[in-house]
Amino acid sequence: MNIELARQQMVQQQVRTVEVFDADILKVLSRVPREQFVPSGLEALAFAETELPLAHGQVMMTPNVEGRMLQALAIQPTDRALEIGTGSGFITACLGCLASEVTSIDLYEDFQAAAAANLEDSGVTNFDLQIMDATQELPEGEFDVIAATGSIEVFDPRLVMALNPGGRLFVVVGASPNMEARLVTRTGENDWQTRSLFETDLPALVNGGLPAQFSF
Fold first, then answer.
1. Distance CA 16, CA 9 (A)
2. For 72, phi and psi rounded to 5 degrees?
């Protein structure tokens, strides 16, 4: 397989076809070596429009969803980013290329260890990986962008409270198979605006399907 040809075909023939036209996003997807972040043995599927299975019942999102998420967040070079669900570290790398710094949290130590190695191999250095259950707590401070890489069954407004004013949250809400990707922008101390982006189906964050326990 011609890796570079496959990467460019992913960007030009898959991601652009879902109206991801932001030049910075396309550049990042063209440069971050996605094949280094996929599970061993699945390198041939690194650029396919399919979810790739990870351990613990999690997945890597499809390139189209990744591109639409990154574009919707409108990440600025001065932004502080939070990722909920590190997985393989691919989105962590993309956020690191677009923002000034990225904090990424996950429940699983094996994910964080592998992601750290992947990130270092790809040359990304502005990241902080933490073991944390997002349904119970979030890192201290406020963020300019939050990307949730797994779904939650019921939206919890306390996610918005982790944003600075004007901050943006990408989150997928609902129950399989009918979920909605949303962009939520914090507009005031206790106010926010929600825009529906597209329909999708994404595995839940661990404990994300249990809204009664969703408190942090």
1. 10
2. -60, -35
